Amino acid sequence: MTKNLLTGLLASALLGFGVAAQAQDCPRGVLDDMYCDSNGDMVADTPADPKQWKDPGTLVFTYTPVEDPAVYRDAFADFQNYLAEKTGKKVIYYSVHSNSAQVEAMRSGRLHIAGFSTGPTGYAVNLAGYVPIAVKGTEEAFQGYNLIMLVRADSDIQTMEDVKGKTVAHTAVSSNSGNLAPRALFPLIGLTPDEDYKVVYSGKHDQSVMGVLSGDYDAAPVASDVYDRMVEAGRVKGEDFRTIYTSARFPTSAFGYAHDLHPDLVANIKDAFDSYRFPAEMQETFGGADRFYPITYKEDWQIIRDIAHATGTAYTKNGLQQLAEKEAADAAKQRAEALAQQAQQ
Predict the structure, then answer these.
(1) pLDDT digits (tens, 9 = 90+) for 265-280
(2) Domain range spanning residue 185?
(3) Which residues form the signal peptide (predicted)?
(4) Are strands 130-137 and 254-258 parallel, antiparallel or unpaired?
(5) pTM of the model
(6) How many domains does the chain have?
(7) Strand locations in 117-189, DSSP E?
(8) What are the Cα distances from residue 336, in Å, to 331, 339, 344?
(9) Euclidean distance between CA atoms 256 and 231, whole angstroms
(10) Which of 1, 2, 50, 268 has the most CB atoms around its CB within 10 Å?
């Protein structure tokens, strides 16, 4: 990717944030000035003026760009058909390649329904009017995941203390398990990122796992569900790795909709999430989850907001711009490394 193209993509991703929004005279908590939160549930209210309600003929849906977007376009194909049936709308999948671009797409009105990964959900709520309503799960509970620290099975690293002085791959700046949680939790056990070990960013959880396997990184904190799916799919072998740390359980990606959709359309979208049951292939893809389990951002994302607060992460325009710049820099670095490897072959 050329420097000019990369700059253009970054500018496009941030276009919706460069225009100052007119502040509304309403309670909003920490939400952007474009939104109101009169009931204190920490997500944007449906606009009071019916003229602002959107009822598009085509609904745009996407899932977090944690891994290969094509995999999840196929995985959600059946649910897209179900959404179309319940809403009476055409539903299309929109592939995104960065968290910041996904947030901007919803803020600008180009994205209507989405699954945001755990960490970036806060940006989507505060800056894009995103209303999370569900997480993959079962009848009993929502599906969660752990932050795990992986090393190679043959590594001399046996404990977290042994990580000191090593090179460790975090995934992306906004990632909960791949960056924010390690920065909040590891110091509690005497291991401070950037001080006790060198942090490099891989871009994605699966790239961190593969980097540990290849020896590019000594260790990597990743989401357990991503790692488990890689093992189940045969992309890596579990016996090639060892886990030296496991955190408490976090919620997985949140699913929800844009706040300004027509209330009748929202009711149909909610009904689709509530009543849909995953087919066997989708259950296999998502670790046994068989439905969307209802959640609220205020209650179920509190631990994630606490981690963000502890690490100084701000779900603001400046915070998202910094995230976008970091994602762009990481993408350019990965592209340069790939070209260098090709040149050596």
Answers:
(1) 999 999 999 999 999 9
(2) 146-249
(3) 1-23
(4) antiparallel
(5) 0.75
(6) 2
(7) 130-137, 144-152, 167-170
(8) 9, 5, 13
(9) 29
(10) 268
